[in-house]
Every structure is written in C-alpha cells, then in structure tokens.
Predict the structure.
Amino acid sequence: NAGVTQTPKFQVLKTGQSMTLQCAQDMNHEYMSWYRQDPGMGLRLIHYSVGAGITDQGEVPNGYNVSRSTTEDFPLRLLSAAPSQTSVYFCASRSTRAGELFFGEGSRLTVL
Amino acid sequence: AQKITQTQPGMFVQEKEAVTLDCTYDTSDPSYGLFWYKQPSSGEMIFLIYQGSYDQQNATEGRYSLNFQKARKSANLVISASQLGDSAMYFCAMILTGKLIFGQGTTLQVKP
C-alpha cells in the first residue's frame, strides 16, 4: 500500500531555478491537491484537481503550475523559484465520494 | 466566503483530562464536510475524524469526538482522557465544492 508518494523529500534551489514536485497516488482517488505549510502555520491550498484533465486554483496559486493528465499523478511546477516559496509542501488525495484526505509525507523546499 | 477559524493558538491540558479544541466555519453551501487532523512534531498529517453536513449524529472515533453544532457553524474536537502522545498541532478543515481548506491550527500540550 503505497498511498500518496511525494518526491523529492528535500530540495534546495537557487532563486530563479525551476523544479517539479512529483505526487502519485495508487488509490484511484479523483481528488488531488497541493498545500504549502509555513512554520507555525496551517496548510494553505495551492491548486487542486477533481479528476484527470481538471485543475483549479486554491488560496495561494501564484508562482505554481499543475497538470492532471492521469488519475494517478499530480505534479506541482515552480517555474522560477523565489525565497518566498521556501516551505513544506504536502500532496493529498481523496475519493470524492467520502472519506479522509490522505497525505504524502511532505517535501521540504528551500529557495536561496 | 468560505472560511474556517481556529481561535486557540495554544492549549494546555492535564494528562487523563478531557480537552475541547474549537473550530468554526463559514459557508452558505448546505453540503460540506469537516475534518480534524493531528500533526505531531515529526510533521506527518494524521486523520482523526470526519463529519458530513448531513450526518445526523456527531462523529466519534475512539477517544475523539466531534461536537457538531450546525446552527452555530461549529465543529469542536473533544479529546477524552488525554495522553502525553496527544501533544501535537491540531487542524480543523472543511471540504466543499471540491476544495478542502484548513484552519490555522491549535497547538495542544499535555502535561504529566
């Protein structure tokens, strides 16, 4: 049971670099989402998707792109990293019928 | 606007006592769900309990119960018989129209 898998777990970037955080789930969940968590703060929704081919913006979408070409995968792209994007990123998935939101282990990103 | 609020940044409770963590929400949509998650210092997100807006009874899961007062738009988490391992950050969250948003969190410390 892999659940929700995020990679990488740690990443250091320089300002202006681009990168992709990968997220995959093997539970056939329709709903997938990305959150960022800053120190001592709650989780803020970046982007979410309710199914393959469908994405929408959350609370803090600027500076991030997503795509959902398959049910399983929901990558998060930073096109030009900024120090303000230093954070811990969580991917999560859920069945739209009911039930809990399953989280990945988190990816700690530092932008210098 | 949809919003979820946790007004207690930090709480203390004596071991073996019960504690209530507050959560209020704001939405005009009649169909929504409410979650509570625990985040220990290790960082993972642990699902505790879920309440649907149409559920007639308050949700319970072991030592956790959700005091759902729909008219007041509150969904407080009650932890009975607190244990030292309950020391963590606790997040209330709401899902509606495919979007799941989190409150700012409450840090709970259990004293021996």
Notes: The radius of gyration of chain B is 13 Å.
